[in-house]
Design brief:
alpha+beta; SMI1/KNR4-like; six-stranded antiparallel beta sheet; 3 helices
């Protein structure tokens, strides 16, 4: 992954198609959004996805659901990423995601995860979300 700042956003971008497909498998993306793969992470909160037709979308890491997909366009110019060793191989995470009432401004609700921990947190919270929907009969 290439990562760094571009303007006010921190980006983590896949180097190639193989890496993008591998991330989709790690995160279990096909379970929630079949036909998409992960090309990056923008601002720590949103995945950038690509579909089989080459269209780009953003989606929150939680919940991974079709209704939350939004068309996405990369900046017109190349994405020059300014590296920042303070954040290398770290992903900001809300201990209690905003979707579940977590406060994004509360210091005690923020932590830093390794990429492997992020995979586990995204999978766990999406399972919680979909289990909750199933109990309500909404899935």
């Amino acid at each position: 992954m290439r990562e760094g700042w571009c303007n006010d956003d921190y980006w983590s971008m896949c180097e190639d198609q193989k890496e993008a497909e591998h991330l989709a498998v790690l995160y279990g993306l096909a379970e929630y959004l079949p036909g998409y793969f992960i090309v990056g992470l923008k601002g720590w909160d949103d995945f950038i996805l690509c579909d089989r037709e080459g269209r780009y979308f953003s989606v929150p890491t939680v919940p991974l659901e079709r209704a939350k997909l939004a068309p996405f366009r990369f900046p017109e110019t190349a994405l020059p990423l300014e590296s920042d060793e303070r954040f290398a191989k770290k992903i900001k995470w809300y201990v209690k995601p905003i979707l579940f009432g977590g406060d994004p401004t509360a210091e005690e609700n923020r932590t830093w995860l390794s990429p492997d921990q992020h995979v586990q947190a995204v999978k766990w919270w999406n399972k919680v979300y979909y289990d909750m929907l199933a109990k309500r009969g909404a899935v």
